[in-house]
UniProtKB/TrEMBL annotation:
This is GB1/RHD3-type G domain-containing protein. SUPFAM superfamilies: Interferon-induced guanylate-binding protein 1 (GBP1), C-terminal domain, P-loop containing nucleoside triphosphate hydrolases. It comes from Microthlaspi erraticum. Gene3D superfamilies: Guanylate-binding protein, C-terminal domain (1.20.1000.10), P-loop containing nucleotide triphosphate hydrolases (3.40.50.300). InterPro entries: G_GB1_RHD3_dom, Guanylate-bd/ATL_C, Guanylate-bd_C_sf, Guanylate-bd_N, P-loop_NTPase. GO terms for molecular function: GTP binding; GTPase activity. The chain crosses the membrane at residues 460-479, 486-503, 535-553. The keyword ATP-binding does not apply. PANTHER family: GUANYLATE BINDING PROTEIN. It comes from the Eukaryota. Residues 57-162 form the GB1/RHD3-type G domain. It holds the Pfam family GBP_C. Keywords: GTP-binding, Hydrolase, Membrane, Nucleotide-binding, Signal, Transmembrane, Transmembrane helix. Residues 1-23 form the signal peptide.
Length: 580
């Protein structure tokens, strides 16, 4: 018994292996392309349908029909294919009602679209169980059919939506006997209303139907409504009737429907590229994998899943544009860069995302992520601005301290340093921290100027007194120049005696004579050509060397001839001849 059971299993496995390894010879039939797994929790691809599609080398455009179970989807597809029920998709009792998933007609129709030879494939989908209810995978079948198709025909009330691929055109096909005196638009609007769900915590199946209806509403701007009367009153005999036996109005409207479908058909695009058979299968595998991994409940959610990668790429694009900025920059410039990069990222998203008009959640998510990046860049700009302005402020502070401690006080040099510091700060300090540091710098430099002016006159007075004494010594003992000594004595007496007799120390600084002395001092000490504070020591050393040279060698060569009166220290008795 055990041996017999094992043999049966082996034989069944061998038959299954052989059946899947042999190529399909007759493609003029319908093949399953997507079917549920045994547990009816996930979808999987079927080899026969994939083989039928993979052999297509031209761009593909898919027409899918969805709708309630036994609503005439298969019959409609056969009509569009100009096939009888015995040739095309199985209709009613002719097809196993337990078959699930999506089926494809194995022989595509050829159509010239905008000068491009295009293969049109037709997809039949598993019907919804009943109005107001949904199987656990109905929404996935619906979502998959939506993203696969170029034209999605909804054969009665509820339907689907639109990553980087072109969304399908939604064609509402309302059979005449369901209109009940309403217009097509009224029927569509009614079909999109939510099913009340007040059963305690809510019925999950009804929630799923409402999600599908929400997804259909998203496709509103990309949809077309079309009414089609019943072909014949004897609906169970439709497969046995020829065109001449069908209602003439139905035949005319059916032909119009064919033309309408052909007019809105476009090749399936992924990131702007039309797909051939093998590329279409790869795309289908990607979609199915996302559906199964995410357990996506509606086409609206599927949009967000596929748009997720595009959102990430657009955020990366925005980030790449923003990181090129050399911080810090002004807040206005940063805002302009942000708006430019933001618009570029939005345009990139609009060019790629699933659905040209919609995907609001993805757009909101993209904007939120870009705003988060922008906030970080704003913080980085504030930090870099603060760091730069702090360094410039510190340098100005050090420069002011250095100017306060000049060996030879010079108002001109202080003013030049003051202006240079202001200009350097104004040009180099940028960003949001500039205003605060400008105020801080203004206070600091104002105090530095007041302190310098307060100390300037006192220091200059002391320097002039010391200078006068030095010149007295130089004129008397070194170069022995009488006029220099006399001028130095006059300056010393003026500063120490005359000023104390006639002026107070403070009134001296407002006297014209003092202003003349200050002007002369400023001219000698600092100019754009010569900074005496920097070169004083080298100049003094050079003069000292010259004087020393003259003292040692100059007199021997040139004697004592001077144009100006000099001291004559030669003793008369030194060269006097001795008397006998």
């Amino acid at each position: 018994m055990e041996i017999s059971r094992r043999a049966s299993v082996f034989f069944f496995s061998l038959c299954l292996f052989l059946s899947t390894s042999l190529s399909i010879e007759n493609y003029h039939q319908a093949f399953p392309i997507v079917e549920p797994d045994p547990n009816h929790t996930k979808l999987r691809l079927s080899r026969e349908g994939l083989e039928a599609i993979s052999r297509i080398t031209t761009p593909i455009a898919a027409v899918a029909v969805i709708g309630p179970y036994r609503s005439g989807k298969s019959f409609l597809l056969n009509q569009l294919l100009s096939l009888s029920c015995y040739e095309g998709f199985g209709v009613g009792h002719m097809r196993d009602t337990k078959t699930k998933g999506i089926w494809v007609w194995g022989t595509p129709l050829e159509l010239d679209i905008d000068g491009v030879k295009t293969s049109i494939i037709y997809l039949d989908t598993e019907g919804f169980e009943s109005v107001g209810k949904s199987n656990v995978y109905d929404d996935r079948i619906f979502a998959l059919a939506t993203v696969m198709s170029s034209v999605l025909i909804y054969n009665l009330p509820e339907t689907g939506q639109d990553v980087a691929f072109e969304p399908s055109k939604l064609l509402w096909l309302i059979q005449r006997d369901f209109l009940q005196g309403k217009s097509v638009k009224e029927m569509v609007d009614e079909a999109l209303k939510h099913v009340p769900n007040e059963d305690g915590q809510g019925n999950k199946n009804i929630d799923q139907v409402n999600q599908i209806r929400d997804s259909l509403a998203i496709m509103g701007d990309n949809s077309t409504a079309f009414s089609l009367p019943q072909p014949h009153l004897m609906r169970t005999k439709l497969c046995d009737l020829k065109d001449e036996d069908l209602d003439s109005t139905y035949v005319a409207r059916r032909d119009q429907l064919k033309k309408l479908v052909a007019s809105i058909l476009r090749p399936k695009l992924v990131q702007g590229k039309a797909l051939n058979g093998k590329e279409f299968i790869a795309f289908l595998e990607q979609i199915l994998d996302a559906l199964n991994k995410g357990e996506i409940p509606s086409t609206g959610s599927l949009v967000e899943v596929f748009n997720k990668d595009i959102v990430e790429r657009c955020v990366k694009l925005y980030n790449e544009r923003m990181v090129k900025l050399r911080l810090p920059i002004t807040e206005e410039s940063l805002q302009r860069f942000h708006e430019t990069a933001h618009d570029e990222a939005i345009k990139a998203f609009d060019a790629q995302h699933f659905g040209r008009q919609h995907a609001k959640k993805s757009v909101d998510q993209l904007d939120e992520q870009m705003q988060e990046v922008y906030k970080n860049i704003v913080l980085a700009n504030e930090y870099q601005s603060s760091k730069l302005c702090e360094a410039l402020y510190t340098k100005c502070e050090d420069d002011m301290d250095h100017l306060q401690a000049l060996r030879l006080p010079s108002m001109a040099k202080f003013n030049a340093g003051f202006v240079y510091c202001n200009q350097t700060f104004e040009h180099q300090c940028v960003g949001p921290s500039k205003h605060n540091y400008e105020q801080k710098l203004t206070k600091m430099m104002g105090k530095a100027r007041l302190l310098f002016i307060k100390e300037y006159n006192n220091r200059l007075f002391n320097w002039l007194v010391a200078f006068a004494l030095v010149m007295v010594v130089v004129g008397r003992f070194i170069i022995k120049f009488i006029l220099l000594e006399m001028a130095a004595w006059i300056l010393f007496i003026f500063l120490e005696t005359y000023t104390r007799m006639f002026w107070t120390a403070e009134s001296l600084y407002y006297n014209p004579v003092w202003h003349f002395i200050v002007g002369t001092w400023e001219t000698l000490v600092y100019s754009p050509v010569l900074d005496l504070d920097r070169w004083a020591i080298p100049i003094v050393c050079i003069i000292a060397l010259c004087v020393l040279y003259w003292r040692c060698y100059g007199r021997k060569k040139h004697g004592y001839s001077w144009l100006l009166p000099m001291y004559n220290n030669q003793k008369n008795g030194r060269n006097r001849e001795r008397s006998e």
